[in-house]
Amino acid sequence: MREETLTQAALRTPKAAAAAGTIFSLLLMAAFWLFRISVPPDPLEPGAWLSTSANTVALALNIVPFAGISFLWFIGVLRDRLGRHEDRFFATVFLGSGLLFLAMLFIFAAVVGAIILAFAGRPEEPIASATFHFSRAVAYVIVNVYMIKIAGVFIISTSTVAIYTGFAPRWIAFLGYGLALIILLGSYYIDWSFVIFPLWVLLISTYILIDDIRSAR
């Protein structure tokens, strides 16, 4: 009876990974799309969106926690899929970069949420407020400098683990290296480069789901 239970749990793990990765990808892309259409990309903008798009940004902020939970679940079940084949060195980089990405995502959301709470009720003040410009610049730097670079590190480490363990095809791993290079070197110059990371997670999740279906058959 116990052996049957463990077998059923092992069969559910890839499906859970695919579901978590897919949910994370869709939610993160939706959240950043809402941010992008509501908040100007210029970190020195005057803050007019606080009086026109605050509700849209608040909706995006409410999506972020669910995306983060899904990503954390995705990391956990992906490590479970690797099992005893997981290399300690790359596993540390893989897990550490994933947790750092998640932490910076929540910090970014907290900063933007604080901006809305502090200034949305007084739309005339952000234009001349140094606090607003500082907070706005912090949110911009977190996303466009640190968070997206950590996402590139996560892609590289995951791709390397995929090559060594074979939990995903080599072409996905090599594609990951190329996408990570774009993120690390060109994210500052390429608009919408942040969608590369959730799309890559979606690709891995889709492969895991297809592989699980094939194994069941």
Topology readout:
Elements: H1 2-38, H2 49-52, H3 54-82, H4 88-119, H5 130-165, H6 170-186, H7 196-216
Helix pairs in contact: 1-3, 1-7, 3-4, 4-5, 5-6, 6-7
Q: How would you describe what is shown here?
A:
This protein is mainly α and 217 residues long. Helices cover 81% and strands 0% of the residues. The chain is built from 7 helices and no strands.
Task: Describe this structure in a few short sentences.
The protein is 81% helix and 0% strand.
Features:
217 residues; elongated; disordered N terminus
Topology order in helix (H) and strand (E) letters: HHHHHHH
**Structural class per helix/strand content?**
mainly alpha
Q: Count the strands?
A: 0
- In terms of DSSP E residues, the strand content is under 5%
Helical content, roughly?
over 70%
Report the C-alpha radius of gyration, rounded.
19 Å
Shape: elongated
**Overall pLDDT level:** 81
Uncertain spans: 1-11
> Distance between termini?
23 Å
Number of helices: 7
**Main β-sheet, in a few words?**
none
Number of domains: 1
